[in-house]
């Protein structure tokens, strides 16, 4: 067993560096939001049966479950200064693939494969899988670099910036179809084809992903292995040692598991929001289930607006949560999730598109808490050893609930009458369970006290 090294402590970083560490997250989140907000619309437009949507929504979390631990494991052992360092080479790889796939996915109905054909469904499913694989590869470095480079004192601020940029990207991506339609871009197409408003949204999102990712790659300088080891109080060989992922899970701090329990309920609920929102809004507000109708496509645009409302609410609420003292973190976390549960359940009862703004504002409050507290609590409880691998494994607390929710939907959806609105009542109950489970969390910190006058890193 290796001896612990004297720990210098991570230095304070200039705010500009923290912003640059996170800046590319804006583009990555745009890719995720376009996928989550338009995926149901795309699949139903090309002929997917609502009963079968769960199959397609299994693919993204399955991809994340496999890829993110691997990115963490291998990036812990990577040092390629010409490509950016430790985490940034994976950001470059993920961005390149994501951009290609973002140009392919919205054209799933334009290749002459046939409406509701197996070929069209398979093409769309494969492109979604690759989009999520690449987006996960591009996303994970941002989470890891905060763990690598930001001390406990600044970590809440850093994740707050990440949440702000994430939600800003989500707002932009969500409103693209609505705004493009407003400026005259076609929002309907012939049966089986995805409207041009959606296609252009993906193309614009791909361009922004390239620009924001390159900003992070060129402006961030990761710590070399010697400096990383000194700041984290480990030896340079610690991240090289071959430790199995199951062994690491056995050694994970208790906070890792209690936060995972909360995450299960939260991400289970959100999987149903992404799967059934378009259909539920079309049924309740526009009174249609015809995917080729103007009403269904209008519902898709309005869901984009509501997703933007959710993200704006999350940005505002993140600032509220940041003002709470540490002793009130759990109350803020649980209260936010409880408000989100009300928002989910209310979608079942609402038949006005304007009132849905209130519902999705409450959902956004829960989203803010989900993007503020979990990573802060977990990274504070971890030492610098195997940071990337642990964060990749923690991503399972996001992916597994979505997989379980999708598989469960094949039983639950028919039991609830085959109505997409009914799934929101269930999601509200599950989110409420998440709020209650917050009180099982006990926050801990693995970071040693900093030396006096910790330098500010240039």
UniProtKB/TrEMBL annotation:
One GO CC term on file: plasma membrane
Entry keyword set: Membrane, Transmembrane, Transmembrane helix, Transport
Record GO terms (molecular function): transmembrane transporter activity
Record-linked Gene3D superfamilies: MFS general substrate transporter like domains
The organism of origin for this protein: Ligilactobacillus araffinosus DSM 20653
Major subcellular site: membrane
UniProt name for this protein: Major facilitator superfamily permease
Record CDD domains: MFS_SLC45_SUC
Membrane topology qualifier: Multi-pass membrane protein
Source taxon at top rank: Bacteria
Subcellular location: Cell membrane
InterPro entries per UniProt: MFS (IPR011701), MFS_trans_sf (IPR036259)
Pfam families attached to this UniProt entry: MFS_1
Membrane-crossing residue ranges in chain numbering: 12-34, 54-76, 88-107, 113-135, 156-180, 200-220, 255-274, 302-322, 331-350, 356-378, 390-417, 423-441
PANTHER family linked: SOLUTE CARRIER FAMILY 45 MEMBER 3 ISOFORM X1, SUGAR TRANSPORTER
